[in-house]
Amino acid sequence: MRIAVDTLGGDAGPGAAVQGAAIAIQAWPGLEVDLFGPGEQLTAEVANLPRHLAAAGLRLSVYHAPGLIHPEQRPSDALRRGAASSMALMLAHVVAGHAVAGVSAGNTGALMALARRALGTVAQIPRPAICTAIPTHDEGRCYLLDLGANVDASAKRLVDFARMGEVMARHIDELDAPRVALLNVGGEATKGSETVREADALLKQLDSLNYVGFVEGDGIFAGSVDVVVCDGFVGNAVLKASEGLARMLITRVQSTFESHLGSRLVGRLARPALRRLKRELDPVRYNGASLLGLDGIVVKSHGSANATGFSYAVLRAAQEVSRDLPTRLAQELGSRHDSTQQE
Q1: Could you report the per-residue pLDDT of 33-46, keeping only the tens digit for each?
Q2: What is the largest CA-CA distance in the chain?
């Protein structure tokens, strides 16, 4: 399995992407990674990998691509002027069949626009959704979508999100009947916007979907649902708020145990439990958002991800490849789409 990686655009620079790719190679047998970015710099990063990652360097290949899509660059400008960028060349590598998936920590809007143009979509999906897994009760997880690609989404688009999320949860997590819910301000049928209520009515008509109705914000993390659907504005706000809350809780717990001698003594005894809590809550573990609906696999890494976080994004791509997710989406969604359903 060969995955293409855009090493530019992340806050930590190409080094984090190179080391993250090496970590992923060690974790996934047979994985190879093609790196796109400044050739000399990437070659030096590979040559200077830490000793425990040095062997992975044999499965890293460098492709010179110095052009950068800037974080503030508009998607329309990236489409016009970004052909020589590391992001576009990485995607072209995937389109040409030299790699089976792409990963980037760069500009989300540009990545969505370039990937949509390069790869197209499955089942006449008009626009892909951004989807990621978030932690829930009892070490579970649920999929949240959309996370920003579709700020304003019609009821039919929300239904599309629900069906795509259900396919992902069923095939990636091997759930027999994933529980799908619409995010709303209450559980009553009269609550929420007209769009959400219309989507609720449409989803109730789908016998093929295990739709359980509305879920409120606190229910996302309770473990009672497997897929949570909302528009991109709400989804992005929920995701960023949950990441910030997780980091704050970890910091608060650590500072509490370090505040005075008695707490430090208790903290030493509780250290294994604290490490487990930090591991379970750390957003790094859930890094890697899928551009769901593309006719190919592209995963967006968080821009601030370190090497460990970037490795999770690469492994996310590898997992989707192993499950042949785009083919699954095309097969299961293709029968219901026609031109009248597009926005």
Answers
A1: 999 999 999 999 99
A2: 68
